[in-house]
Task: structure prediction
Amino acid sequence: MVQTEEFIDEKVAEISEQVGDANAVIALSGGVDSSTAAALAYEAVGDQLTPVYVDTGLMRKGETDEIRETFSYMDSLRIVDAKDRFLDALSGVTDPEKKRHVIGEQFIREFETVAEETDADYLVQGTIYPDRIESEGTIKSHHNVGGLPEVVDFEGIVEPMRDLYKDEVREVARALDLEEIISERMPFPGPGLAVRILGEVTDEKLEVAREATHVVEEELDEYDPWQAFAAVLGKATGVKGDNRVHGWVVSVRSVESRDGMTARAQEIDWETLQRIQSRITGQNDNVSRVVYDVTHKPPATIEYE
Ligand code: XMP
Result:
């Protein structure tokens, strides 16, 4: 997009006109799309916009604090601590699609509460062009696409970036001085760590996935992956000290990709892999094994569920 500044001026004016004196809400995930949409809308209507960040407890290490800091200039920012409610809702749920559904439903409930409290007539969304195409024929139910408008009765939906591609959004983000802070982190799925935990999501597995992912992100940064993370697969026998333990099996995944549609598992040197193994098994007594996933997409997907 050649005229990024013009695009911004035009959208800010459009949003101001559409929202007028009313209130608006946006669900902020910390990703580049919702962050850019929030920044545009905030520029247009200021504190009439309430950006809502729902802490599902399924986030990466430090993520909530980063959001708090990045968007601290927005006085109306709401951070909803919903960790316990999400874990409760996920208790006993093992089917992957059911998990996604439960998370999506709970998310809508949390968001709806704030939308009602703030008397919001408008919903701002960070929808971009590929979202609209993908949601027509998606294999998985992406909970962050659609859903909200059908549940909450908004007067209008504001989608300033609905015709943009990702690289154009990044240009806008950069022009709004947002890019660097929010694009530092790799893409992260809406349902968060839940799709990197096979079977039921529990506090214990979340802790393993979160801490192990942190190690993987740190160690593999130099490989510049599209996504690199750790998943919790199940349990296997190991030896810790003099004892046989039945501990978690953690899978390390690091892929390169252009758009997430296909991906290649990255070739990582042995020393780095061993360092990752040793840090992950060392930080948690309940982890007995670390494996590296060498599967491309296809035939695998990037995430585990
Ligand atoms: P898969 O696992 O299908 O993932 O190869 C492709 C890309 O999409 C992300 N992903 C999701 N993003 N909600 C999202 O917002 C989801 O439910 C979801 N599932 C997968 C994944 O992280 C990868 O970048």
Q: What stands out?
A: Confidence is low (pLDDT under 50) at residues 137-146. DSSP finds eleven helices and nine strands in the chain. Residues 4-183 form a domain with the Rossmann fold fold (CATH 3.40.50.620).
